[in-house]
Design the sequence.
């Protein structure tokens, strides 16, 4: 390529890494650049895996667009495959074969993303890159109360950040900044920002969320950063991880760190002051009993009995006796009179755990008791008045159980005057480091390494908080040193081959759709910046990435890759042909005249 006539004032260029060497290639203001290994290619790249004409770059005055030319060639941007046209941004990393090209723009000002959806997609890309390379990422969220518009604030910020950083408009009073490669040291660039033009913005507040410390999903990070910005004072920067609340509830400690849990327990405090029945729902192990205990401890009934009963553990024949009590001689072995749980809880709270497991007969008896607050012991004719607040919990969808005829509608409405949902641990990632700190504080001063925390944040936690506690108890029993390393965790925790990864990929797609549906106002006159690829193309890209990761993880053995992905082998083979992912197996090699020989290292 010749240098004549290129616009050096704009400073746009490509930094090419082919082999051990690198070179900077300036770009003209406009034109088309063919990239490949051919002698006559506009940008010649000589490296394994590079086709003759691998890709084409359309150079426009205000943007760069990468186009795939060879359908069989491996073309990626920021480690994500490119199947159609892809707009390039400063510091994007283009991969072709074993070569890489970094997009450079040495202009004084980078261009902020003007649409919320584009910023969300950039956030997804950066998180995925952090996940693969185990690099940190800081997400800053700026909110303010002054007259400045979001576009004006984004322009001011763009003049102060690095070119690798991504600035984006999220709403009228919300601007986000992505800082790749920045972890706990994010305070340094933030202080520089506050000394610049944005420092004069009225009522400016900044919340910060970090990868992996504060989560590995776009939705969770944005929620954490928003919550932290609301907690910050004017001119203050508030890290998401610092908003941790610990509350003693009897012999137990309640740890609240994630914004979703802060919101939940804020509602719990308000409901505690009322004497309403509350239905608590959520997956097993999420801490529903702690929510019930908080409702009791923060109410006027504190100091009175808190009686918890597991409805799933009581048979129909014993239910009436356990709940209402019995008189002496009421049945065989009734040698003494015994008060029931409703009597024992008088003045306090009765917590019915797993109430969805009750039989229809038991549901009818329970309904009458909590409606009248009067009970009769078995073997007695005397009604007794009780005064209890009834709390109930279930890991089932009781609304669906009512529709199916397995749970009484009248009891459902009686128990669910107020309802609370406890989110699963995978949806509250900020709770994980805080819970680890709390659980390990009860041990012998053992702490957890960054690598182990990274794996914990990757895990899906089907058993929720109970599973996390058991994992840490296992580590405390087996680790001999003072630090829990990633290798000390059970092998299925945070494993790249874990079966939940396919579901997690689907969750990211849904997360993208919800992000797109979030109301946001575009700055007048700004480019839309919405990708032309539809949801179907987005799903194809995620599927291709997951198949490629599975093949690499299993060293190209398709049978094992199909098992990891939970995909039929024939379907996997068809997808490999469709996406051009024929990664040869390095697991074993057939020797002429001899059996297969394993080439992988055997673990001792």
Sequence:
């Amino acid at each position: 390529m010749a240098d004549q006539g290129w616009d050096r004032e704009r400073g746009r260029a490509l930094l090419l890494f082919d082999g051990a060497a690198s070179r900077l290639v300036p770009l003209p203001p406009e034109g088309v650049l063919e990239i490949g290994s051919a002698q006559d290619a506009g940008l010649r790249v000589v490296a394994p895996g590079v086709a003759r004409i691998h890709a084409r770059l359309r150079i426009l005055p205000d943007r760069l667009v990468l186009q795939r030319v060879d359908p069989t060639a491996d073309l990626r941007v920021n480690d994500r495959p490119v199947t159609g046209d892809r707009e390039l941004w400063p510091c994007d990393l283009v991969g072709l074969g074993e070569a890489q090209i970094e997009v450079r723009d040495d202009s004084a000002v980078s261009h902020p993303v003007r649409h919320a959806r584009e910023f969300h997609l950039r956030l997804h890309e950066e998180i995925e890159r952090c996940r693969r390379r185990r690099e940190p990422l800081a997400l800053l969220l700026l909110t303010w109360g002054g007259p400045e518009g979001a576009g004006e604030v984004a322009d001011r910020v763009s003049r102060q950040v690095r070119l690798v950083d991504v600035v984006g408009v999220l709403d009228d009073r919300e601007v986000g900044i992505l800082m790749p490669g920045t972890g706990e040291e994010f305070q340094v660039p933030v202080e520089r920002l506050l000394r610049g033009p944005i420092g004069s913005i009225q009522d400016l507040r900044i919340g910060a969320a970090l990868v992996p410390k504060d989560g590995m999903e776009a939705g969770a990070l944005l929620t954490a950063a928003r919550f932290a910005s609301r907690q910050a004072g004017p001119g203050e920067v508030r890290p998401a991880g610092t908003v941790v609340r610990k509350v003693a509830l009897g012999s137990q400690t309640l740890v609240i760190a994630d914004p979703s849990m802060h919101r939940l327990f804020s509602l719990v405090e308000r409901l505690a002051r009322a004497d309403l029945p509350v239905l608590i729902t959520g997956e097993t192990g999420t801490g529903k009993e702690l929510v019930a205990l908080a409702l009791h401890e923060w109410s006027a009934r504190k100091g009175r009995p808190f009686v918890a009963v597991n409805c799933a553990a009581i048979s129909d024949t014993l239910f009436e006796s356990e709940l209402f009590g019995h008189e002496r001689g009421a049945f065989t072995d009734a040698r003494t009179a015994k008060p029931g749980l409703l009597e024992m809880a008088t003045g306090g709270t009765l917590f019915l755990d797993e109430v969805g497991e009750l039989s229809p007969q038991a549901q009818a008896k329970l309904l009458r008791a909590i409606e009248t607050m009067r009970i009769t012991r078995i073997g007695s004719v005397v009604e007794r008045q009780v005064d209890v607040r009834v709390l109930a919990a279930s890991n089932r969808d009781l609304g669906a159980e009512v529709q199916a005829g397995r749970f009484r509608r009248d009891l459902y409405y009686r128990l669910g005057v107020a309802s609370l949902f406890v989110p699963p641990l995978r949806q509250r990632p900020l709770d994980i480091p805080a819970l680890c700190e709390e659980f390990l504080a009860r041990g012998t001063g053992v702490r957890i390494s960054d690598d182990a925390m990274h794996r914990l944040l990757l895990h899906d936690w089907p058993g929720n908080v109970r599973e996390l506690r058991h994992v840490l108890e296992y580590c405390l029993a087996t680790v001999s040193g003072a630090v829990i390393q990633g290798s000390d965790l059970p092998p299925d925790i945070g494993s790249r081959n874990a079966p939940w990864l396919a579901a997690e990929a689907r969750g990211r797609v849904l997360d993208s759709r919800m992000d797109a549906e979030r109301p946001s106002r575009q700055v007048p006159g700004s480019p839309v910046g919405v990708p032309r690829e539809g949801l179907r193309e987005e799903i194809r890209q995620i599927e291709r990435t997951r198949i490629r990761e599975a093949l690499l993880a299993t060293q190209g053995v398709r049978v094992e890759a199909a098992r990891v992905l939970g995909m039929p082998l024939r379907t996997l083979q068809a997808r490999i042909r469709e996406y051009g992912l024929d990664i040869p197996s390095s697991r074993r090699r057939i020797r002429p005249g001899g059996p297969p020989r394993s080439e992988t290292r055997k673990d001792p």
Remarks:
- Confidence is low (pLDDT under 50) at residues 1-10, 496-534, 587-604.
- The CA atoms of residues 502 and 546 lie 8 Å apart.
- The two ends are 54 Å apart (CA to CA).
